[in-house]
Write a structure and sequence with these properties.
The protein has 248 residues and is α/β, with parallel strands linked by helices. It has seven helices and eight strands. The longest helix has 15 residues. It is globular and about 45 Å long.
Length: 248
């Protein structure tokens, strides 16, 4: 399975990453990507940029190093009501919104509370994908959440960084179960490197191996073609991006 979109990447703006958007795009081109999602951390994460940063992504060219730039964010799930740390007027400037649990923002709680938070995040309609769900600090009812994600067309991320053992240690077992159950249910999957340095852009081998292990159909992996990814955004109610017309 070829992957041509990396839907989870960070720049210096996140406060704990080490490359610029220009460096990330150049790495994406070298590694054969067609689209790159810029998903810096939303404001409640320590060190993250002010909310104006996300509005101002409109100044970014639609192509850098011949790679299409998707204006995005990795938002924080704040509470069991499923609120995220973006102002309502931010969404008009963004193409792609992920939501993730992060320990500095959402203190790990019970499985029931994590499940409730994820269900409400999905149902609020603002989030296109759920990030690095394998974190063992945030266990949840996998089947219940994934069935809800399928119903609302919210993608489930297979996070390559979680599978390397370098971050969120112990995620591999949970990730395997999530992909197995997600394949049975028929959810949409997305793949993210979670790169915090440009050389990690498009490092997705572990994610692809896991998807193949559970025989996930290629049409369910929205990053396997530009057409699948961009049409998923349309399915989510996003406006058509005219600069990417030849990629639909």
């Amino acid at each position: 399975m070829d992957i041509v979109v990396d839907t989870h990447t960070h720049t210096l703006a996140s406060g704990h990453a080490y490359s610029t958007i220009i460096e990330n795009a150049a790495a994406a081109q070298r590694k054969g990507l067609k689209l790159l999602c810029n998903t810096d951390h939303a404001p409640k994460m320590p060190g993250a940029p002010h909310y104006w940063f996300f509005h101002n992504q409109i100044v970014l060219p639609r192509f850098l190093s011949e790679v299409g730039i998707i204006r995005g964010v990795e938002a924080n799930t704040l509470n069991t009501d499923g609120e995220i740390d973006l102002y309502d007027d931010s969404f008009q400037y963004l193409d792609w919104v992920m939501a993730s649990f992060h320990e500095p923002v959402f203190r790990p709680a019970s499985e029931e509370e994590h499940t409730q938070a994820l269900l409400n995040v999905i149902k609020n309609g603002k989030v296109d994908a759920l990030g690095h769900l394998g974190n063992p600090n945030f266990k949840f009812d996998i089947k219940t959440v994934l069935e809800c994600a399928k119903q609302h067309n919210v993608a489930i991320e297979v996070n390559n960084s979680s599978l390397t053992g370098k971050s969120r240690k112990g995620s591999d077992v949970r990730c395997d179960e999530i992909v197995r159950i997600g394949a049975e249910i028929g959810v949409f999957f997305t793949t993210g490197s979670d790169a915090h340095f440009c050389e990690d852009i498009a490092n997705l081998d572990h994610a692809v191996t896991l998807l193949n292990k559970h025989n996930v159909a290629e049409e369910k992996v929205i990053t396997s073609s530009t057409s699948r990814f961009l049409n998923f955004l349309l399915l989510r109610g996003r406006e058509r991006i005219t600069e990417f017309e030849h990629l639909y």
